[in-house]
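queue> holo job accepted (manganese (II) ion)
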Amino acid sequence: MDATLAPETRSPAPAPAVSWSLIRIAQAVALLLAGWLIARRRTSLEVTGSLGIGRSAGPSEDAAPSLLRASLIVYTGNPDLSAVSRHRPGKPQLPVSEGLNVLSDLPRALSTDELILHYQPIVSLGDGSVRGAEGLVRWEHPQHGLLGPGSFMQVVEQTGLIAPLTRHVLDRAISQCARWRDSGQELSVAVNLSVRNLLDQDLADDIGSLLNRHSLPPDALQLEITESMIMTDPDSSLRTLVELSDLGVELSVDDFGTGYSSLANLRRLPIDQLKIDRSFVTPMLKDESDLIIVRSTINLAHDLGLRIVAEGVEDRATLIRLASLGADLAQGYHLSRPLPVAAFEDWRRHPVD
Ligand code: G
Ligand code: MN
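queue> job finished
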C-alpha cells in the first residue's frame, strides 16, 4: 500500500523559519534608524524604525505576498513596538491568495479615483423624506473589478493606510453632500470611522479643514463609530470624540447592540444617535425577543436624548412597525441598497413608499 498521502490531504508545508542571523541584521538596521530629530531647534522627537520579516515560501512565489506579510507585521505583530518581528503562520491572513495586493495597489487607487462611494439612503420615519445617505466605500480595481470593503478594509485598518483612506472617503462624502446642498437638497452624509482614526490626533482638525474647503456646515456630517472602537482605548477615543463634537459634526454609534459598551460609558460620550444593528431589526417581526430589544433600545435612546436609526429594514411591514414604535430614521434594502451617485439621485426621484 502506498503510504504517502494524496496531495489534497497533506497539510500545507510549514513556512520557512526565519534565521537568527536575519533577525540580528534587522535589529542592527532598526538601531541605525533610531535617533533623535531636533525640530526647529526646540522640539526633539524620538525616531524609531520597525522592521517586518516575511520570508517567501520558495523561489516560485512572487515577491508581493512576502512584502505584504512583512509590511503587515510591522503594524500587527508589534504590540509592544519591539523593533523587529516575524510573520508566523497563524497570524492574520491576508487576501493575497486572490492576487489582490492591497498595500501596493491602494496608494495608486487613492490618487486615481479608483476608490468611490456608494450611497445608501436614510429616510425619516415621521414623514418619509430622505434625510441623508451613508457613504460606503467601493474599490473599482482595474484587474479585480468592483470590490466591497470586505475585500480590503481588514488589511487597510491594520496599517497606516487607514488614515489616507479615511481622508479620501471623507473628502468624497463631504464634497458630494455639498453638491447636493448646492442643488437645493438638504441632505446629510454619514461616514464610517475605524478604530485607528480615533487615535489620530489630527483627525478633528483635518475634518474641520475639509468642511471649510467644501463649505459644508458641520452638522451635515455624521461620523459612525462602533462600541468596540470606543472600548479599545476609551480615553484617547473620548478625547477625539469631544474634539469632533466641538467641531459641530454629529456622532453615531453604529451596529448598536452588538458590542459591550456599558450605559455608563455611552452617557460619557458626546453622541447624537444610535444605529440599532440590523441583526435585531431585520428579524424583529418574526422573533419576539428581537422586537423587545428594538423597542427597548428606541426607548433607551430617547430617554438619553438620542436619535435612533434602524438599519437593515428589509420589508414594508417592518418599516411601518418601526414608525409606530417611534424610531426616528430607517435604512435598509427595502428602501434601497447602497447606490452609485447617479443611481442614488435617480432613486430620489422615485423612492419606495
Ligand atoms: O456596519 P454598517 O452598518 O456601516 O454596514 C453597512 C453595510 O450594511 C453595508 O455593506 C450595506 O450594504 C449593508 N446593509 C445595508 N442595509 C442592509 C439590509 O437591509 N440588509 C442587509 N443584510 N445588509 C444591509
Ligand atoms: Mn455604518
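queue> Residues 1-13, 42-46, 76-82, 91-97 have pLDDT under 50 and may be disordered.
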